[in-house]
Amino acid sequence: MKLRLILFAGALLTALLGGCATPQYQKSYRHEPPPDPQGQACVQGCEEKRQACQADCQARYRICLAEIEPQVEGRYLEALKQYEMDLMRYASSLRHYEMQLDFYWPGYYWYPRYGYWYPWHPWPAPAVWLPPVPSQPTRDSVRAHLARVNCQDDCACLPAYDTCFIACGGKIIEEDICVKNCPETSSR
User: Which of 5, 34, 131, 159 is buried most, with the most CB atoms less than 10 Å from its CB?
Assistant: First the structure.
């Protein structure tokens, strides 16, 4: 009975809060080509330049990926050594954490330099935090990091295309499109 009541209250709360959410919009750009044949031929030339730019960019990106491949194994071994050191630091921090928990007796607070203090002492109790677990590296994560740092996969072909498109007489229309929590449109 309590479970049903909790589920009903959760569903009611979700329905009430769902109606209060604000709509989220995303910018969209629509290209309107020029109406005359000369402008359309110009736009076709712009499209060919954009495709050539993207093909060249992808070729350079693949070459860059091939060039960093020999570095991956060495960097992976360095990352494993760093991970080993992080694990040793984590083990030490974990032992320290457990020791702090062991010495936290009811009524007394333990301070590493000063010994035990009574609870009416004005100093606060030492904070006890669980240390974060280090994450183990993989070859793929090392390769992805090297690619992100050394290789460029965006060659800015689209802004050049947009400039060319406008120069040919085309129009770029900016629109806001609702993507989440959209208001319902009334059809009358």
Answer: 34
